[in-house]
Amino acid sequence: MSKAFTKESDNGDEDDEAGGLPPLPPGGKNYITPEGYERLRAELLSLMDVERPKVVEAVHWAAKNGDRSENGDYLYGKKRLREIDRRIRFLTKRLEIAEVTDPSVHHGSDQVFFGATVTYADESGEEHTVTILGIDEAESAQRQVSWIAPISRTLLKARVGDALKLVTPGGTQEIEVVEVVYPAPASR
């Protein structure tokens, strides 16, 4: 059978996998901050206007070099082109359904909403700080968590001083909200 008629992946929905992100919860909205939306939009435009044309040019050049079955530049270029196209489809779909939510409207509030940076203390008194963002923009290495994460679900709508029950794989843990901070509104 020709390789042209084989599936690349057994996963039926490659586009959601392309971003390496969890799917949206059923009926859930794709909340995102204005900054996160602009970052994803900039990535999409860069892929379409800069990176994809470069790869197309490289593939075109490599295709002129003869036997494509053993042409590494051609094979790698085609693979990279598929990856870029998959990411473009993913970003396009996510941006279409994005619900941009500006957390600065809650500036000065002590209640936890989307976009809050929350400091909480665990049972041992150790403090942890997380920022609640959209699933497409949260980076755990920067202490950012998506709004669908268990810690976020526990913290949302709580206020400073509230004691909460956080359910973890290791059991239930009591936490207390210590501080809630929002970005300042942009001056106009």
UniProtKB/TrEMBL annotation:
Sequence segments annotated as region (Disordered): 1-33
Record bears the keyword Transcription regulation: yes
Residue stretches of biased makeup (Basic and acidic residues): 1-10
Family membership noted in the UniProt record: Belongs to the GreA/GreB family. GreB subfamily.
PANTHER family in the cross-refs: TRANSCRIPTION ELONGATION FACTOR GREA, TRANSCRIPTION ELONGATION FACTOR GREB
Function: Necessary for efficient RNA polymerase transcription elongation past template-encoded arresting sites. The arresting sites in DNA have the property of trapping a certain fraction of elongating RNA polymerases that pass through, resulting in locked ternary complexes. Cleavage of the nascent transcript by cleavage factors such as GreA or GreB allows the resumption of elongation from the new 3'terminus. GreB releases sequences of up to 9 nucleotides in length.
NCBIfam families linked: greB (TIGR01461), PRK01885.1 (NF002506)
Name of the protein in question: Transcription elongation factor GreB
Source species: Pseudacidovorax intermedius
Gene: greB
